[in-house]
Amino acid sequence: MSFESSTSSKAILWSAAALAGASAVGILYWSRRTHVYEQYVPIQYQYRPGTISGWLANALSKYSKKRRKIRPVRVYVDGCFDMMHYGHANALRQAKAVGDQLVLGLVPESEILKNKGPPVMNDEERYIMVEAVKWVDEVITGVPYDLSPQFCQELFTKHRIDYIIHGDDPCLLPDGTDAYAYAKKLGRFRMIKRTEGVSTTDIVGRMLTCTRVNPFVASDEPHPLAKSFSMAADKAEEDDEEVPNAASPMKRISHSHNTTLSRFLPTSRRLEQFSNGRVAPEGARIVYIDGAFDVFHPGHVKVLQAAKAEGDFLLVGLHTDDDVQRRRGPHLPIMNLHERSLSVLACKYVDEVVIGAPTVITRDIVSTFNISLVVRGSVSEMSGVRAPDESRYEVPKSMGIFRPLSSAAPDMSTRNIIHRIVNKRTEFEARNAKKTVSEAKYQASKTYVQEL
């Protein structure tokens, strides 16, 4: 055979082999897409952990985890976090999902006054709230409201921040410029989805409306707490002059008898996101505390911290809206049951929540949840208004598993917060009116953002 014919034969063979190989790859790809692959290819040759592809994927994953342990991705979220609520908590949860460590910048009261208006809570109270959120790793205090280039560089160098995060709602400075413009220019800004249905402005509005007794609830005598709020509102009206507000010609919110309804839409996914997903280990000392936990505040945080110190697993029972209303009057609770559940679940001291727990603790509840100790805080919304109902804790007392906890924040309660707002009603109504305008603009122009 000549050299030319031999070369030609080899070329034909190689071409046929290449065609056969390409056909085999095509058939293999098609069979995998149509699930024929799993039926006819032996398991030892299928793609799975342990094969070369699986080994490479595992190696890359291990390298990534090792690198992030040495140099974790640090993200930064700033804000006032006044009247901390589940919307704030959900923003922090999403921010934490962007990186490994979440650093929170707490804007001081002096900056809030210059840029937004009066805060409800002082610096120390707001610090207690943000430090107790289970997704927060570090808190920086005294940060400026304006993320200037100089402050951004301080975040990137001194605090080793990789990304600055904010919701999809605009954050404008008094001069109308974007507070996050510099971070966006550097490509170190990440957007998260804003949680709809709640805001500090909304909660303040609900509190302002509760200064009047609900006219749709038939009652010969107003509830003691409602009378207290109404007297405070009346005094505030006497002290303040009626000055027309050019920015908001609407009637004062506190004059309305209508309550502000929550726009919160509860989902099972949201509860799952906030839940620890933990089960009390065998032999754990389970501590139980119940209540309304309405408008989650520093007093709640302190009593939950003290309760968790009494055992290994903290279970919190949340009473229904109807039970809270019967006990405290038609104007409360400010937050509904699902909103209160998320606020409590966001606290790092809480392991699990019983949604809609009965007000009276029975032996069945103790045995069902294997409760070792029942505790109760010394501060109540009804303190000084009405004697507490001791029958709620008769069973745990008779079993010798009840213990009262002295409050670390005796002056802090939902009633106290409402009085703060009522006493400065004009200032808060002006702030709410201004916020309502910007909220309307956001709602008119917002687009869909995928939640993390």
Automatic annotation (TrEMBL):
The record ties this protein, via SUPFAM superfamilies, to: Nucleotidylyl transferase (SSF52374)
* Pathway given in the UniProt record: Phospholipid metabolism; phosphatidylethanolamine biosynthesis; phosphatidylethanolamine from ethanolamine: step 2/3; Lipid metabolism
Give every Cytidyltransferase-like domain span.
76-205, 288-380
Picking any one GO biological process from the record gives:
phosphatidylethanolamine biosynthetic process
Q: Name one GO cellular component term.
A: cytoplasm
Q: What is its EC number?
A: 2.7.7.14
| Keyword Repressor assigned | no
Gene3D superfamilies, A to Z: HUPs
Task: Provide a Gene Ontology MF annotation, just one.
Answer: ethanolamine-phosphate cytidylyltransferase activity
What are the protein's UniProt keywords?
A: Lipid biosynthesis, Lipid metabolism, Nucleotidyltransferase, Phospholipid biosynthesis, Phospholipid metabolism, Transferase
Family, similarity comment = Belongs to the cytidylyltransferase family.
Q: What's the protein called, per UniProt?
A: ethanolamine-phosphate cytidylyltransferase
Q: Which organism is it from?
A: Chlamydomonas eustigma
